[in-house]
Amino acid sequence: MANSLVIVESPAKVKTIKKFLGSNYEVDASNGHVRDLPKSTLGFDAEHDYEPKYITIRGKGDILAKLRKEVKKADKIYLATDPDREGEAISWHLMKALKLDEVKDKKVYRISFNEITKNAVKASLKNPREIDMSLVDAQQARRMLDRMVGYRISPLLWAKVKRGLSAGRVQSVALRMICDREDEISAFIPEEYWNLEADLLQLGSKKILKAKFYGTSGEKIAIHRKEELDQILEDMEGQPFIVEDVRIGERTKKPPIPFTTSTLQQEASKVLNFSTQKTMRLAQQLYEGVDVKGHGTIGLITYLRTDSTRIAEEADQAARQYVGSTYGAEYVLQNEQAKKSSGKIQDAHEAIRPTDITLTPVMVKDSLQRDQFRLYQLIWKRFTASRMQPAVYETTSVKVASGKYLFTLSASRLTFDGFMSVYVQDDEKEDSNTLLGKLEKGDELTFSAWNPSQHFTQPPAHYTEASLVKALEEMGIGRPSTYAPTITTILARRYVTKENKNLYVTELGEAVNGIMKQCFSSIVDTSFTANMEFLLDKVADGTVKWKTLIENFYPDLDEAVKAAEKNLESVKIADEVTDEICEVCGRNMVIKYGPHGKFLACPGFPDCKNTKPYLEKIGVPCPKCGKEVVIKKTKKGRKYFGCENNPECDFMSWQKPSTQKCPKCGSYMVEKGSKLLCSDEQCGYSMSLKECAKESI
């Protein structure tokens, strides 16, 4: 009979942890939070010291009843929820819901581990502790602040704009940042400038060297207009190109630091095209445990919510040993990477890393789903690279004089690949220049051609999920656990749309942001929100009382809401009208939004209640019948392309069809990545999208 009970958050962890412990341990899950503030009210009394009122979450009664039975059987209870503020709060709520603080004949402990491995779990059992009430209070304060903003402002948006809207303490700031970026882009006035390159040749070589215009020996000159360019070219007419200075040097590129939550989300977005939500879902699976052939169920990565780049000494030494034995001693990083220090960093956890570096991506590939494998491989490569030597380049910098003007050319050659033998980032660009012979001062280069190019300054880029996460982190807004749900919410509320990774604010988003700026300026002020995060950190380390935060925040919010209810005028957001005609009454149907996304509805409601599914057309005729191809979804939510005339026409394709016909067999072609493939697999013809674009021109 088990005499120890270990309670974790997720059922997925139960199987993993149970394997590590003997028959004396029972492992069960709370399935996340068991208590929360009630949904029907604010959940606290502002007149009585802001004391929160917690109730059992609907549906958790059976779970708690089962846990109570297990508690009765056990002599020791270990609360093993996640190692962060949220996890600490869940342990405290379990303590209260199961009345563990009232039992006299049982010992109750709090344990936590940064990775779900046998060593980590057993070590935590040897070092139990009490619940950290400072962390609990920080979570309570965050929960109540979020509840205040959401429950007081959201009903106002429902009344003044439309039903179904919401405001949030971090969400509304993120929306403002996107709106502000849109304003910058709209206000941007492009300015003309020109670049000038000279194609030059070394003596006895046919390899073109690209020399860039610099200015004169005394100053750098920017070319703003075509007239300025023409004057420079006229001045250099017939002038020779003489090497004035040659410098040989060495450049090192430092290895990357291990992933934090933010940098993992950014890199997974750029490299794997994952949304922040998808990245966190997959990372959670890798952390909780995966059945790996030959190893059983094990956690493959450390805890996924962290803003620290710290690595445990044991893991650091294991990584260096692995690098040395696999790549050679010369590849092992000789000294610790300098960490970026910031007052915003919480160093409670390690960076995100593999729990066992010897479990290479190749070894676990057959045990993982495709996207799990791709994320694990990214994490493994990044961590391994962080324990490797810098890459080394030999660089050559040359100044070339032509009349009174100066040109520069540079070349670099990789002499030691270091960490780049494992991990290469997208920003690594090869130098186009290759010096075949040694250049010396006084050498003359042969002129081949001018390459002038006109450019215009570009506005700031639209936010992507990756760049928004980076900006939120840099400003100290939100925490690792909040980035993904924040972005998911503003997309779900249709304040923002996503096209080709870029985030664009909608008319609805602009209206909501306008109200927030007008009536709740402090809520959407980035500095105010960042300072609130700082104060929450102070609650977590025990230097600020959590109710002090609440007492200073709520009265001003209450006053602002009452003023807005009285003075704010309603905002009308018109529904998007489509070309689809209502077959009942003949009106043009409009796009509405429901729990499952877009649908078409008659604007004559309630007189006409006709609705129908919304089918998004892609501008491609059906290869079978000529009607429109539309985007559809399976019952499990997987996207595919089908004919709008279904069921009369049964055309469907998992890949997006193209208007392009296969030049080899005449079948329709489909898009896959950067290529067009013939839909007839037996044909096998393919072409790049770039080639297709050139042909269409």
Tell me what the structure shows.
With 697 residues, the protein is of the alpha+beta class. A six-stranded antiparallel β-barrel has the order 9-10-15-14-11-16. It has a four-stranded parallel sheet with strand order 2-1-7-8, sandwiched between helices. Strand 19 (577-581) and strand 20 (588-594) form a beta hairpin. Helix 5 runs antiparallel to helix 16, helix 6 (171-187) crosses helix 14 (483-492) and helix 8 runs antiparallel to helix 13. The protein is globular and about 95 Å long. Residues 338-347 have low confidence and may be disordered.
Q: What count of helical segments does DSSP give?
A: 18
Fraction of residues in β-strands: 15-25%
Radius of gyration: 31 Å
Overall mean confidence score, pLDDT: 90
Silhouette: globular
Q: Please report the total strand number as a whole number.
A: 30
| Poorly predicted tracts of residues | 338-347
Tell me about the biggest sheet?
6 strands, antiparallel, barrel
Widest beta sheet: strand line-up: 9-10-15-14-11-16
Q: Structural class from helices and strands?
A: alpha+beta
The span between the termini is: 77 Å
Helical proportion, percent range:
25-40%
Brief write-up:
By secondary structure, the protein is an alpha+beta fold.
